[in-house]
Amino acid sequence: APAPPPAQHLFSDPAEIEALRGNLLAWYDKCKRDLPWRRLAAAEPDADRRAYAVWVSEIMLQQTQVATVIDYYNRWMQKWPTLQALAQASLEEVNELWAGLGYYSRGKRLQEAARKVVSELAGQMPRTAEDLQKLLPGVGRYTAGAIASMSYGQATGVVDGNVIRVLCRLRCIGADSSSPAVIERLWDMANALVDRSRPGDFNQALMELGATVCVPKAPLCGECPVKQHCRARRRKLFGKPAPVPDVEDCGVGSCPLCPPAAEPWDSSLGVTNFPRKAAKKPPRAARTATCVLERRGCHGALEYLIVQRPSSGLLAGLWEFPSLPLAQGLQEEKQREVLADHLRAWTGRPVAAGGLRFIGEVVHIFSHIHQTYVVYSLPLDGDVTLDPALSPSRWVTEKEFHASAVSTAMKKVL
């Protein structure tokens, strides 16, 4: 069995916990950012409507910066102010509003969960973190804890990237912060720390601290409201302790939460020694041939053919120009040939590879894919009858294209 973590990594002194709570909440009340979901939740007396406002914001904020989310959130809540309104929307409408926000499955799962609440739960949101996670698709442990604490007052903690960073620094946790064992310890710590009378505010304060003060690089330690509780700061100020293990040093090799022996404390990094993360895998490279098919519409306006992607997988359900994944190392002549073959199905007529005009390449980075789009164009004369047996497709003007549920990558292509 792994060695238990020494007490110095945990919060066990009730007086210290109470002091930390008070200092953090006082700072939050004074310094918190004015964000639309906070205003909306604070002004909403109905707990379920408040939960919906929090839920939408938390889903949008996953893997996405606050500055990017604000406009999307405001437009979403204006269009679907209640969970019941969202349940009646179409997936196409959801995708159109979500376009450009990334990780498109989030919007789809949010709508699926809204429909489930309306159709299977009599319109009543689950009120505990456990039930939220169990009953709603797309709601994980963190989102469930956020909704339950902020909307229903459940004294449950949350652990996201900001909280991981704050807690690892507060208690000098240097083991891989993405490992299941460390994550579980951090959840235990968050649940022990959360203020029982203001759990939602405390959780937001902890995340706010990580987002604005205890940032990944160049943290503002002098402005931190809980700096007196921070063991990483203490180590920075007083240096690495003596070889004899004491409250500041568990002894390398025996403690499951200390930095590994191969990665000792680096005095030049200070508190940013923590948290430690496993090395990220580099994104895989992929190449896709994409063709912008053009025609003149009945009113003379230029129109483009867009087709819908499959309902699962990357960019599920979004619209794109006809595209085809390319094998690595394929020469340009062969690229044209395979793309021409692919386009025959969409146009219903032979397509000459030589007629494809090479435009250039567009690079778009997904979280796990370094995607290169090899872009061609092909003007078409006369009417083109689209085969209804194929995936959904339609002709759109440039204005209609931008109003459609298309990815940022396809906007780059155009």
From TrEMBL:
PROSITE patterns cross-referenced by the UniProt entry: ENDONUCLEASE_III_2
Recorded superkingdom: Eukaryota
Keyword flag Iron: yes
Keywords linked to the UniProt accession: 4Fe-4S, DNA damage, DNA repair, Glycosidase, Hydrolase, Iron, Iron-sulfur, Metal-binding, Mitochondrion, Nucleus
Cofactor annotation: [4Fe-4S] cluster
Localization in the cell: Mitochondrion; Nucleus
Enzyme Commission code: 3.2.2.31
Chief localization: mitochondrion
Pfam families: HHH, HhH-GPD, NUDIX_4
Signal peptide (UniProt feature, chain positions): none
Nucleotide-binding in keyword set: no
Family, as annotated: Belongs to the Nth/MutY family.
Protein name (record): Adenine DNA glycosylase
Annotated organism of origin: Eudyptes sclateri
UniProt gene name: MUTYH
